Amino acid sequence: MDCTVDYCVKDLSLAPDGERKIDWVSRFMPVLQSIRRDFERRKPFKGIRIATTLHLEMKTAFLLLTLKAAGAEVSAAASNPLSTQDDVVAALAKAGVRVYAIRGEDRERYYEFMHRALDIKPNIIIDDGADMISTLMREREELVEDVWGASEETTTGVIRLRAMEKEGVLRFPIIAVNDSYTKYLFDNRYGTGQSTWDGIIRTTNLLVAGKNVVVVGYGWCGRGIAMRARGLGATVIVVEVDPIRALEARMDGFLVMNMMEAAKIGDIFVTSTGDINCIRREHFEVMKDGVILANAGHFDVEISKPDLEALSVEISQPRPNVTEYRMADGRRLYLLAEGRLVNLAAADGHPAEIMDMSFSLQAKAAEYIKDNHERLDPKVYVLPREVDEMVAKIKLAAMGVKIEELTEEQRKYLASWEHGT
């Protein structure tokens, strides 16, 4: 382990491998490239301190280097112990980012590193899951007066932050980047859909076609997972608590059941809800032998590991990132990536082209906080529509796509109330 005041990484000599990874993904992130060129010219974050808790892999690294190129002092800790890429964090440390992360770090070190990232006394926070914000509010209250605002990447984090707003404990404004159109419509749906199955297939080397796949939760992430499972040839079953989403899933052509029904016939289960114990003891008790259990939600609480452990008579690891739980009756249930985010813990996360949009929004959210924090109340906000449209236009141009423009006649028509039947 290589540690100084400015960084703590597994092995600084891994930096060249990380640099090559970052260079590779940056070629497929044209929107963030455009923002970086603008930031390098203007230096909007000169003298500003930005602390981050994110999945520390190659696409994230390009965002952090973009913020540094804009003049910011940047610190980083991991938002998940198993999503850190040690060569990438070594490259970040070499580039001057204050990074504290080691793949597989335990809970104690996870929070120790988060505190070290907070030691820069940030003006802006970029969070993924709201752990850094909640830690700041509970344990580092002396830093609050320096914080102008924060942005949040995930559905889970936004849920936590809206709960904080409702209870009146928020002390600074939050930008819910997750709720921007060019984030959730693409990152949550197409990014999660592809990367989740990448993680499952890479880890198990098993066929998806012909299997019953149970998708627990039909939000935007669940939609993507279900869509890609169908494309791989599976019969897809959706489990939902929201009647409107359940109806939508049925009309999208998927089977819809409650968890107990689905538990009896599923071959592969994927959770994506942001809630706790969605698959638990009574469901494990009726599952078939050889079931695969995977989680695509932010925290490792959606599949009850305590219940799995209590029911099992033997626990082993037949493959990397696969834990086998053998039941008393001989059935074997397989949990992937310790129940953590399977797409990041067992694979490389979302494709670069997807994170290009999400991280461009994060960069612009940081600038929006810098420019507007004095007039924003301690509430949860969404970025202005024009930021979404800017990201979409640059992305379309990079893809070689031209869209239609309204004529002046059409603009006037849409702005008028006088035209009728």
From TrEMBL:
<dbReference type="GO" id="GO:0071269">
    <property type="term" value="P:L-homocysteine biosynthetic process"/>
</dbReference>
<feature type="binding site">
    <location>
        <begin position="217"/>
        <end position="222"/>
    </location>
    <ligand>
        <name>NAD(+)</name>
    </ligand>
</feature>
<dbReference type="Pfam" id="PF05221">
    <property type="entry name" value="AdoHcyase"/>
</dbReference>
<keyword id="KW-0378">Hydrolase</keyword>
<dbReference type="GO" id="GO:0005829">
    <property type="term" value="C:cytosol"/>
</dbReference>
<dbReference type="GO" id="GO:0033353">
    <property type="term" value="P:S-adenosylmethionine cycle"/>
</dbReference>
<feature type="binding site">
    <location>
        <position position="240"/>
    </location>
    <ligand>
        <name>NAD(+)</name>
    </ligand>
</feature>
<comment type="similarity">
    <text>Belongs to the adenosylhomocysteinase family.</text>
</comment>
<keyword id="KW-0520">NAD</keyword>
<feature type="binding site">
    <location>
        <position position="350"/>
    </location>
    <ligand>
        <name>NAD(+)</name>
    </ligand>
</feature>
<dbReference type="GO" id="GO:0006730">
    <property type="term" value="P:one-carbon metabolic process"/>
</dbReference>
<dbReference type="Pfam" id="PF00670">
    <property type="entry name" value="AdoHcyase_NAD"/>
</dbReference>
<dbReference type="InterPro" id="IPR042172">
    <property type="entry name" value="Adenosylhomocyst_ase-like_sf"/>
</dbReference>
<feature type="binding site">
    <location>
        <position position="343"/>
    </location>
    <ligand>
        <name>NAD(+)</name>
    </ligand>
</feature>
<feature type="binding site">
    <location>
        <begin position="219"/>
        <end position="224"/>
    </location>
    <ligand>
        <name>NAD(+)</name>
    </ligand>
</feature>
<dbReference type="InterPro" id="IPR020082">
    <property type="entry name" value="S-Ado-L-homoCys_hydrolase_CS"/>
</dbReference>
<dbReference type="InterPro" id="IPR036291">
    <property type="entry name" value="NAD(P)-bd_dom_sf"/>
</dbReference>
<dbReference type="InterPro" id="IPR015878">
    <property type="entry name" value="Ado_hCys_hydrolase_NAD-bd"/>
</dbReference>
<comment type="pathway">
    <text>Amino-acid biosynthesis; L-homocysteine biosynthesis; L-homocysteine from S-adenosyl-L-homocysteine: step 1/1.</text>
</comment>
<dbReference type="InterPro" id="IPR000043">
    <property type="entry name" value="Adenosylhomocysteinase-like"/>
</dbReference>
<comment type="function">
    <text>May play a key role in the regulation of the intracellular concentration of adenosylhomocysteine.</text>
</comment>
<feature type="binding site">
    <location>
        <position position="188"/>
    </location>
    <ligand>
        <name>NAD(+)</name>
    </ligand>
</feature>
<dbReference type="GO" id="GO:0004013">
    <property type="term" value="F:adenosylhomocysteinase activity"/>
</dbReference>
<feature type="binding site">
    <location>
        <position position="153"/>
    </location>
    <ligand>
        <name>substrate</name>
    </ligand>
</feature>
<feature type="binding site">
    <location>
        <begin position="296"/>
        <end position="298"/>
    </location>
    <ligand>
        <name>NAD(+)</name>
    </ligand>
</feature>
<feature type="binding site">
    <location>
        <position position="183"/>
    </location>
    <ligand>
        <name>substrate</name>
    </ligand>
</feature>
<feature type="binding site">
    <location>
        <begin position="154"/>
        <end position="156"/>
    </location>
    <ligand>
        <name>NAD(+)</name>
    </ligand>
</feature>
<keyword id="KW-0554">One-carbon metabolism</keyword>
<feature type="domain" description="S-adenosyl-L-homocysteine hydrolase NAD binding">
    <location>
        <begin position="188"/>
        <end position="349"/>
    </location>
</feature>
<protein>
    <recommendedName>
        <fullName>Adenosylhomocysteinase</fullName>
        <ecNumber>3.13.2.1</ecNumber>
    </recommendedName>
</protein>
<feature type="binding site">
    <location>
        <position position="128"/>
    </location>
    <ligand>
        <name>substrate</name>
    </ligand>
</feature>
<keyword id="KW-0963">Cytoplasm</keyword>
<feature type="binding site">
    <location>
        <position position="187"/>
    </location>
    <ligand>
        <name>substrate</name>
    </ligand>
</feature>
